[in-house]
């Protein structure tokens, strides 16, 4: 059942992102995205969220459809041709990982640390940063994985419940995954830069050199 908390995290994350973009943290937060396009996209998603398809087993929220269309456009226009197949493969891999994590946490509630569904989102987001550090590819991977994982209940237990893709709780988990992905990406980049400086220093000063 939807509670008043569902969707609050996603809305808060969107506001924080726009503030960061306006403050000059464009590259760190979203790979150079400007504040105005981001704000316009969030408003569009909010409007699309007012529409939802009807179905006995599966229902799509308009915001999720919009996100997948945006991800498809990014994949076609902004992801290098040499990386497109790899990016799709990463989306499927992460999607199946989310399904496994969901079943793991569902069968062992004692493993939940924060909230049901949130732990898996944080883990999958961090793993996405290990698959690719490019923001455009991360958008495709996270969006595709979230959609794939959401389709699993339709196949695993058809008819038991109506699966809604793009609801408020769905966006909360996607926002957590995106936050975890970007934070982990910055950590990986910082560690890589530090390692590069160490190796460069050792190369300039070979062991035993006076």
List keywords for this structure.
mainly alpha, single chain, 3% strand, 210 residues, two-stranded parallel ribbon, 8 helices
Please give a structural write-up.
The protein has 210 residues and is mainly alpha-helical. Helix content is 70%, strand content 3%. The protein contains eight helices and two strands. The chain has a two-stranded parallel ribbon with strand order 1-2. The chain is globular and about 70 Å long. The mean pLDDT is 89.
Helix-strand blueprint:
Blueprint: H1 8-22, H2 26-30, H3 35-48, E1 58-60, H4 62-77, H5 84-107, H6 118-131, H7 135-156, E2 163-165, H8 168-204
Parallel strand pairs: 1-2
Kindly state the number of beta strands: 2
Mean pLDDT: 89
Overall morphology: globular
Biggest pleated-sheet summary: 2 strands, parallel
The helix/strand order is HHHEHHHHEH
Distance between the termini: 71 Å
User: What fraction, in percent, of the residue positions are helical?
Assistant: over 70%
Judged by helices, strands and strand pairing, the structural class is mainly alpha
Radius of gyration: 19 Å
